Amino acid sequence: MTITPVRSTASTARPSAGAATAASAGAALPSSSPSSPSSSASLTPSRTALRWRRWGWLLAAVWLVFLLNPLLPALRNPDRSSGAVSVVAILAFAVLYLWSLAFRHRSRDPYGWALEQEPQAAWTTFAALVVLSAISFVGAGIDGAATFVFLAVYALFALPRLAGVVITVGLVVGCLVAPFVDPRLGDLDGIALSTALAGTTIFGVTATARGGRALAMAQRDLARLAVVEERGRVARDLHDLLGHSLTVVTLKAQLAARLVEADPARAVAEMEEVERLSRDALADVRAALAGYREASLGTELAGARQALAAAGITAHLPASVDAELPAEVREVFAWAVREGITNVVRHSAAQHCWVELTPNELVISDDGRGPVAGSAGSGLTGLSERARLAGASVTTGRSSAGGFRLSVTVDDSTDGSVAPRDQDDDGGVRA
C-alpha cells in the first residue's frame, strides 16, 4: 500500500505507515526467540530458523525507517527543546523495539519468535514503549501516532493473546474516535487502517506459528512414545524368549552331565538338543529385534511338553489347538504358555502340570509350591501388557491341586487393563 509522504505538523493530512510497514516489521521476528515456560522443551532448529535468528534483525531495522514520519516533524519543530525531547524519545523507541523483538530472549526453539515473552519483562518493555510513544507527541504532534502500528505489533507478539488483541483494537478505535473528540487532530484513518491490517497479519502469523509448534511438539512426543513402546516390546520378547529357552537349555545340560558316564550316547543326544535350542533361541532373538517375532500356540505347546519332560514333570496338554481362535488371541495364549511353563519348570517343584484351552480362556496350573507373597515379576507384567493389547486379562492364584494357577481370559466386557493379581487370601504371584 502507498505510504503517505512525511509532512509538517501544520498540515491536516495524516501519515499512514501502511500495513506492509507493520507486517514486515513483524516478519523479522523469527530472528528473536522470546522465552516462555512452554518453550522449555526446545525443538531442533532448522537452518532457516538459524538464519532468521542471525540476520532477521536487519529486516526489522529496515522497516523502522517509517518512524521518520514523526521524527522529521520533531526535527523541524521551532521549539528546539520539545523537538529534541521527541527526537530522543523516537530514537529510544526504535532501539527498544528492535532490541526487544530482534535480539532479546534468543533460544534454539525455531518457533520461539512466536511465543509470548516472560510476562513481567514483556509488560515492562511495552510500558516503556508506550511512554516513549507518548513523549514523541511533544515535539512531533499527532505524527507521533505512527508509533501505534509498532505498539500493536509488539503487543501481539510479546503479550498474552487476549491482551494483544485488546490493545490493538483499542489503538484502532482510538484513532477513529479521536478526530470526533478533537477535530484539530485531523484524519487518523490511515493510522487506524495500518494498525488494523498489521494487527490482523501478525495475529495470523503468530497463530500459525504457535499451531505449527504445537504440532511439532505433538509429533515429537508421538515419536518418543513409539520409542518407549518399541523398547517395551523388545524387553518383553527378550524376557520371554530367553527365559524359556535358557531354562530348557539349563535342564538339558544338567541332564547330559548326569548321563555322561551312565549313558554317553544319550548325553551326546541331549547336548545336540542343547545346541539346537541355542540356535533357535538366537534366531528368535534376532527376529524379536527385527520386529517380526510372532509366537505360535502349537509350537509353544510342543516346546512346553519338551520342557516339562526335561524337568521330570508330567504334562497334561490339550490334544489340539482351536483353529477358530483369532490371531491376536492365539498369539497372547502362546506367550502365556511360554511364560507359564517357564515358571512351572523354574519355581514350582511340581509333579504335574495342566494346560487347559478354550476359545475364551487359557489356564495353566500345577500341583507344586503354589503362589508366594510378593509382587508380579517382569514376566507376568509383560504378559499382562500383551493381554491388554489383545483385549484379555491375566489372573493368578492358587490352583485346585494346591499349586499355582495362571489364567488368561478373553472377555468383551474387559478393558484389558487387569494386571496379574491374586484370587484368594493366601495367594501370591511368581515372576
UniProtKB/TrEMBL annotation:
Residues 1-22 form the signal peptide. Gene3D superfamilies: 1.20.5.1930, Histidine kinase-like ATPase, C-terminal domain. GO terms for molecular function: phosphorelay sensor kinase activity; protein dimerization activity. The chain crosses the membrane at residues 56-75, 82-102, 122-155, 162-181, 193-212. GO terms for cellular component: membrane. Pfam families: HisKA_3. Residues 8-22 have a biased composition (Low complexity). Keywords: Kinase, Membrane, Signal, Transferase, Transmembrane, Transmembrane helix, Two-component regulatory system. It comes from the Bacteria. Residues 1-22, 392-431 are annotated as: Disordered. InterPro entries: HATPase_C_sf, Sensor_HK_TwoCompSys, Sig_transdc_His_kin_sub3_dim/P. The keyword Membrane applies. Residues 230-296 form the Signal transduction histidine kinase subgroup 3 dimerisation and phosphoacceptor domain. The keyword Transferase applies. This is Two-component system sensor histidine kinase DesK. It comes from Quadrisphaera granulorum. The lineage of its organism: Bacteria, Bacillati, Actinomycetota, Actinomycetes, Kineosporiales.
